[in-house]
Specification:
With 181 residues, the protein is mainly alpha-helical. The protein has eight helices and no strands. Helix content is 56%, strand content 0%.
């Protein structure tokens, strides 16, 4: 399938092809177009002319938060091929549209899709980390996610602070001695 994407800028050409329809009859889509999820996209070295079935699979995987290396492994293509595909403007628009339509801009669904891979990365760091600090931090993160962070107790007092701490210390020591007997 050859992709032929028209923007609102091509409305005059579309108007001519429709046989002289008034410009008032040509309206923009009812839903707003999705904002691009790519910042500073790189120009592709080669332009891919035809969409294939695995392109759509890769687009859904990337939209759900998978890394390029994971998409390459799962689809059986190289990381370079997925990277080239990911630089195609039409593919970037497809990924953006999938995120907009399928995930309804709900970031929690995207995070849920990437959670398994993130946990596996943390687990790998905990067992195969380069240094002990990395292993310790990754292990703590795993425990915190499994059991929750340990409770930190904070004691607040509403009493006025003493301007002379030495006198306050003596008063508290005397109070302890009298209460301790």
């Amino acid at each position: 399938m050859l992709l032929n994407i028209r923007t609102l800028d091509s409305a005059p050409a579309l108007q001519e092809s429709l046989g002289g329809v008034d410009s008032q009859d040509i309206l923009p889509p009812k839903s707003t177009s999705p904002r691009s999820t790519y910042t500073n996209p790189r120009e592709p070295a080669v332009e891919i002319q035809h969409e294939k079935a695995w392109h759509r699979t890769a687009a859904y995987m990337l939209a759900s938060g998978a890394k390029i290396s994971t998409v390459a492994f799962e689809t059986g293509y190289s990381v370079q091929q997925i990277g080239l595909l990911n630089r195609q403007p039409w593919f970037q628009q497809l990924v953006t549209t999938i995120i907009h339509n399928e995930f309804n801009d709900d970031i929690s669904k995207m995070l849920k899709g990437a959670a398994t891979e993130a946990i596996m990365t943390i687990r790998d760091l905990a067992t195969n980390g380069v240094n002990e600090t990395t292993k310790l931090k990754a292990s703590q993160d795993l425990l915190d996610r499994y059991r929750g962070k340990a409770t930190n107790f904070v004691h607040h007092t509403n009493g006025a602070l003493s301007e002379k701490p030495e006198e306050e210390l003596k008063r508290l020591e005397e109070e302890l001695l009298t209460n301790g007997q």
